[in-house]
Specification:
The protein contains 22 helices and four strands. It is mainly α. The protein has a four-stranded parallel beta sheet, sandwiched between helices. The longest helix has 27 residues, at 101-127. It is globular, with a radius of gyration of 21 Å.
């Protein structure tokens, strides 16, 4: 497989699933040999290439679009609204991200894949108008600050035999629409599994912080990435100007495309309801509810003093192989105010919308880790959902097969990312007080 074929699926981190991603205490202890060091073969190749490979791997919009048209033989990507977002993203990748050669290859590959997916999905939609008629009923969205148990909960709820959760393989390669009859042995599963093996090469130690598999649930930002209005890109790269632009945008177009994507996946492989997840939904709850007015929301909560260093460590893992200029202190400075804003958005939305109709349910990380199935039963009871014996057994089996720290223990601290314990405790006091979060939980 060539480097050009390297495919990280849109977000090798946030679409993880399993207890390793939730309960692990983060970074490998003093394992500097592993940290961000590419295998000898890749490093040897890079020595013979330009510093960032800009002359070999293009991040030019016209070049990428032409390449997508050539690969697919199609020329209709759907709504033209994505062009502005794509242009801002590409400019930010060039000016802000300090990409090395591997970073350019990954960015080029992922953006090209998303453009090809857009073209193919639009063609499928043209050929099969029934796709647009699909109704997405009462989807269940999990959100909250990152590293608060949302991934474990997503994986557990996705074990429900009656539900649909977007799996990694079908988000990476959605066309043609997956079919129920062949869903468990679609050839795209093995294709995706082979592509994900690149993670072990490009991001040594990645699986220690996140469990990922072609058949595990995927996160929503890997879907909204196809609209290029998504937090997936800033998780992978330091795209400061793109983030500033993105924060000011109306997120509804991203969720409208998200809905089209779900319609596509659901058409021939339906379920009773969708189970979806992304911490970044906190920044767009209004848009989410506009597109999915009957959505059910589960919010997960944890002590921010545990969340912040874990999140910063994970960001370092994600970005570290793509740039030679990663500054851990800058990561800390970026992470803390960003998720403070997310916490405020969550409270403001809860206060302004109320919960008289029972559409919100809060989960404390400590409760989830202590007894995951007890929390699952509370959720099912709250939303008047039926938890069958078959589903409960599937959930218990998943927990047994994905024990804590399956791929090793990670360690982290606030201090290594330039964060002060007392400062961050004061910064997030409004959040811990509102949701009743105990220190250290």
């Amino acid at each position: 497989m060539s480097l050009e074929g390297l495919n990280l699926g849109g977000y090798p981190g946030q679409f993880c699933a399993g207890r390793t991603a939730i309960k692990g205490t983060s970074r490998p202890e003093n394992n500097s040999a592993e940290k961000k060091i590419l295998p000898k073969l890749i490093r040897s190749i890079c020595r013979f290439l330009p510093a960032n490979g800009s002359s070999l791997v293009s991040l030019d919009e016209k070049t990428l679009l032409n390449k997508a048209h050539k690969q697919t033989g199609l020329d209709d990507p759907g709504s033209e609204s994505f062009h502005e977002a794509l242009g801002v993203l590409l400019k930010s990748l060039e000016s802000d991200a300090n990409l090395n050669f591997i970073g350019r290859v990954c960015a080029h590959s992922d953006i090209l894949r998303m453009l090809c997916n857009r073209l193919r999905l639009q063609e499928d939609r043209r050929r099969h108008p029934q796709i647009a008629e699909q109704i997405i009923r009462r989807p269940l969205f999990i959100t909250g600050l990152p590293r608060t148990g949302s991934t474990l909960l997503h994986a557990l709820l996705a074990q429900d035999v009656s539900c649909r959760a977007p799996q990694t393989w079908e988000v990476m390669h959605p066309s043609p629409p997956p079919e129920r009859v062949s869903y468990n042995y679609d050839p795209r599963i093995s294709k995706t599994a082979s592509e994900l093996k690149w993670l072990d090469i490009v991001m040594p130690g990645f699986r220690r912080v996140h469990l990922i598999d072609a058949r595990l649930p995927q996160e929503c930002i890997a879907i909204t990435g196809h609209a290029f209005i998504s937090y997936v890109f800033e998780s992978m790269y330091f795209v400061y100007s793109y983030r500033n632009w993105h924060d000011r945008q109306d997120k509804r177009p991203a969720y409208e495309y998200h809905k089209q994507f779900l319609q596509h996946l659901q058409w021939l492989a339906p379920g009773d309801h969708w189970v979806l997840k992304a911490p970044s939904h906190l920044f767009a709850l209004e848009a989410l509810m506009q597109v999915y007015p009957d959505a059910r929301i589960v919010m997960t909560h944890r002590d921010p003093l545990k969340v912040l260093p874990s999140c910063a460590s994970f960001t370092e893992v994600l970005r570290g192989s793509f740039t030679d200029c990663l500054d851990r202190k800058k990561v800390g400075i970026e992470i803390a105010p960003h998720w403070q804003k997310g916490a405020r958005r969550a409270i403001e939305f809860c206060q302004s919308n109320g919960n008289s109709d029972g559409r919100f349910f809060n989960v404390l990380y400590a409760d989830l880790i202590r007894d995951p199935m007890a929390v699952v039963r509370l959720i099912y009871n709250h939303f008047d959902m039926a938890l069958t014996d078959e589903t409960e057994m599937a959930m218990l089996r998943f927990l047994a097969e994905n024990p804590q720290n399956r791929h090793g223990v990670h360690r982290y601290s606030l201090e290594e990312f330039g964060l002060d314990l007392d400062t961050e405790r004061r910064r997030f006091e409004f959040y811990t007080s509102f949701f009743g979060i105990e220190p250290g939980s």
